[in-house]
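Final report, Chapter 2: Outcomes

The project's central promise was a pipeline that accepts a single protein chain and returns its three-dimensional structure in a standardized token representation, suitable for archiving and comparison. That pipeline is now operational. To close this chapter, we reproduce one record exactly as it appears in the project archive, with the input sequence first and the structure output second.
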Amino acid sequence: MKKITVTANDSGQRLDRFLQKTFESLPQSMMHKQIRKKNIKLNRKRCAPEQIINEGDVIELYLNDDLLIPKKKHFDFLGAPKLDGIVYEDENIIIIDKKQGVLCHPDGREYVNTLVSSLKRYLFEKGEWEPEKENSFSPALANRIDRNTGGLVIGVKNFNALKIISEKIKKREIDKYYLALAEGKFDKESDTLTGYLTKDEKKNMVKVSKTESDGAKKIVTKYKVLDYKDGLSLVEIELLTGRTHQIRAHLASIGHPLAGDGKYGSKHGRFRQQLYSYKLRFNFSSDAGELNYLSGKEFTGSRTEEFYGR
């Protein structure tokens, strides 16, 4: 019999998801079967796969050892570049100004040279994260931006922070602002664009149309032109929805692709779009628990002046 005591970083998730993260040799079908047979108990009682676990709960597993092989702790992150561009940090979150060209997460070809790996290395070397003492949690990014988009990304240091920030992003209680260099002169100095986005998974591209269709997702993009020079408009964009390549495809659909964005029609044909996630505002309209102190705070990227000067 194996006994696990739930820690703070394990708390608040489903029992089955916790077990999947903890053991590499416990198939989901087998796990559900053993829960039904009461060979897996929570606080010495019968439980359900979807049951939420809390700090201090005790999970008992009356299973063979070959089903309870812990997932290996990999330290590949120590080979990641050192973290730079820290804009803000406290005991729960860290806001990082990501450089263009850096992946947020592994993509199947690159595993170590990513922002999340650099975050893990940073917290490990500071002594704030000890992988060997964790059952299921590792530092994570609550939001992500494209490889060739620079700007602000929110890292989280514990599971509770991840849960709260993810919920606030979903509820649109964290405002995201971008700066972009777009080709051409806009007819309107400011506008709120509405469209419908469909994704081509094979090409990793999206298409925006003005009319709704099956499978399309509604998108809303607000923009304001700040300057115009040499055929390029400097535009501030507020994302009112957050879809794959939304800014790039939405502006291209009205005849203003981002400079350098060959995928969505830039005349220059490069694949390094001039887009920068430059500002975040924590605009909570509902309780944020331990993170209520962030409400009303606003953070601006360290490379904002550099972008304005282009």
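Archive annotation: The chain has a mean pLDDT of 93.
This record, like all others produced under the grant, will remain available to the consortium after the project formally closes.
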